[in-house]
Amino acid sequence: MFNLILFGPPGSGKGTQSEKLIARYGLKHLSTGDLLRSEINANTPLGIEARKFMDKGQLVPDEVVIGMISSALDENKNIPGFLFDGFPRTPAQAEALDKLLDFKKAPVSVMLALEVSEEELVKRLIIRGETSGRSDDTNEMVIRARIAEYHNKTAAVADYYRQFNKVVMIQGEGTVTEIFNRLAEEIDRRMATQVQ
Ligand code: AP5
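A: This is the predicted complex of the input protein with BIS(adenosine)-5'-pentaphosphate.
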């Protein structure tokens, strides 16, 4: 199995690139943001609770997202691998993911971390907010709170995987195709050398 974590701050292009990567590599896309938004749209108790955090630009508690990912891993068997988008977002989530993948004897293969300047992130999210209907895109204060949450709680996840030599930084500015080619080049290299 090839398990990829696509990492980066809000607006760095994780969702955009995930769509293209799953089309090329057949990986199962697991986005905790998308899973949470489905719960919100279905008005489930989990969604109602999660929305309180998401609307303020804060992370949803670890146990909620770890539970969601654990179920998703169980539901998807016999696939070539997972693409994790927006997860893990804290070191505790990273440790939990490693334990869950240990059971499958299929560890994280690589973390590709998109690097984008804060100015560009804010610009992209404000533009998206004009049409996306996402409540966390609608005002700049919430966008900046999401970016601050990334620096305070999420950036440390890269340090966690760095100790296992699994992090590759990818320049996340340029056209969507240019960035996709950078990601694909790294994935192809890793896939070619991964011991099955
Ligand atoms: P989540 O849904 O994961 O959102 P996010 O990380 O804030 O990321 P975005 O979807 O905003 O950006 P992205 O990096 O996917 O970029 P995109 O491709 O969309 O999380 C939302 C919330 O859910 C969190 O704040 C938190 O509350 C909660 N949550 C989720 N996971 C959690 C977890 N594990 N633990 C706790 N809480 C969790 O692109 C952005 C825009 O830029 C788009 O309009 C796109 O068209 C544009 N764009 C993309 N690439 C380019 C480019 N190269 N040039 C110009 N524009 C571009």
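Helices lie at 14-25, 32-41, 45-54, 62-75, 91-103, 118-129, 140-162, 176-193. The mean pLDDT is 95.
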